[in-house]
Amino acid sequence: MNKTETVTIYPAKNITGGVSLPGDKSISHRYAMLAGIAEGTTKLKNFSSAADCASTLGCMEALGCAVRRTGGEVEIDGAAGKLRAPAAVLDCGNSGSTMRMLSGMVAAQEFASEMTGDESLRKRPMKRIMDPLRQMGAEIEAKGEGDRPPLRIAGRRLKGMTYKMPLASAQVKSCVLFAGLFAEGETTVEETVATRDHTEQALRAFGVTVKREKGRATVAGGQRLKAIEAYVPGDISSATFFLCAAGIFAGSNVVFDSVLLNPTRAALLDVMTQMGMKLNFLKVEEQFGELIGTVQAQASGLKGATIKGGLTAALIDELPALAAIAPYTREGIEIRDAKELRVKESDRIAAVAENLRRMGATVEEFEDGLRVPGGQKLHGAEIETYGDHRIAMAFSVAALRAEGETKIVGSEAVAVSYPEFFETLERMVER
């Protein structure tokens, strides 16, 4: 992103209407990667419009998979387990998901490769995937200081193992299980805190046998994957911003069509309900282990919440939006055990605290989180996004109830996950 853009958000009276969300990022990444090593042609509808998922498609293409994209439909010709040596460095853009998960696949191929990304991604830690891959026999090194990208990976024959995760990370779990598909014997990942299970569901969708026990997922190497035809459900992380917007206006009424309702991702719905939002589930169905439904959200004011422990891990992507609307709740919101937010696309704890203060809020910042008292009034300000899509969208929502106009500097960052965000938001706002 070379050009810095600014969007001005004006105060609103309410938010209402229907939202058709872009395809879920997490599922789009995984389906695209698994399609690349499957036999046959995978056809995906409502594939994510996010730049991050476009980075994954670009990497799969560079690794020898034909990719055809028409709007929200994507076709990927699988390489039947044998990817091709890329002619150039694999560019993961801003996508940590692409780099971390795809590393597990390329570590087992019969060629060397290098993976890099934009300035933000090159600041993000990769030791968390390098350690387990090395334990499986991979040759992987980070060229950046402090085990940061670019990553240089020389393909090796891998051996299965049992890996106990030292921190909750669905990306690390996915990396190890993807490597396990090519490893000798069985590979098991043990979790003390449950993370989203999209990888296990996606593996099964492509025909892989996955053994699940409490806190453990196991795959055997050498399994053949078969192409699928699937619809990618609406991204619930993108829905977060409209749920939060609805939550700060009494009388709001927002309907989400075909949104992901996976229990490992639906913690936000539980929290919003506990805070006082009324949610109606109008239609629910299952596809490849993923629950999809239509949800109506209505609000008449929000209480507050304390988010810590396992709940923090389950809500890690949604925390910036919740913190941004915390001043408008009655009791405020406290977030702890969220140190992981320090090493996202930006230091999200610092970014949220700074921008709330710019808008006139009182905020207490901790090493692992924030405490934002409720019952506060905010005023318009100039918001610094730090190139982070979730900061840009979170403060666009907070700005809807602020006094005066708010400028979102670096608004182009939303393209990383939700290019249509501002257009959708403007359509739903009543002034």
Topology:
Layout: E1 6-9, E2 14-20, H1 25-37, E3 41-45, H2 51-62, E4 67-70, E5 73-77, E6 90-91, H3 96-106, E7 112-116, H4 127-135, E8 139-144, E9 148-154, E10 162-164, H5 170-180, E11 186-190, H6 198-205, E12 210-213, E13 216-220, E14 229-231, H7 236-247, E15 252-260, H8 267-274, E16 278-287, E17 290-299, E18 304-307, H9 310-314, H10 319-325, E19 332-335, H11 348-358, E20 364-366, E21 369-372, E22 382-384, H12 389-398, E23 406-409, H13 421-428, E24 429-430
Parallel strand pairs: 2-15, 3-14, 6-7, 10-11, 18-19, 22-23
Antiparallel strand pairs: 1-23, 2-24, 3-5, 4-5, 7-9, 8-9, 11-13, 12-13, 15-17, 16-17, 19-21, 20-21
Helix pairs in contact: 1-2, 1-3, 1-6, 2-3, 3-5, 4-5, 7-12, 10-12
Give a description of the structure.
The protein is of the alpha/beta class and 431 residues long. It has 2 domains: 6-23 and 233-430, UDP-n-acetylglucosamine1-carboxyvinyl-transferase, Chain, CATH 3.65.10; 25-231, Enolpyruvate transferase domain (UDP-n-acetylglucosamine1-carboxyvinyl-transferase, Chain), CATH 3.65.10.10. The chain is 29% helix and 27% strand. It is built from 13 helices and 24 strands. The strands form 6 sheets. It has a 5-stranded mixed β-sheet. A 4-stranded mixed β-sheet has the order 4-5-3-14, with helices on one face. A 4-stranded mixed β-sheet has the order 6-7-9-8. Helix 1 packs parallel to helix 6 (198-205). The longest helix has 13 residues, at 25-37. The chain is globular and about 60 Å long. The two termini are 32 Å apart. The mean pLDDT is 96.
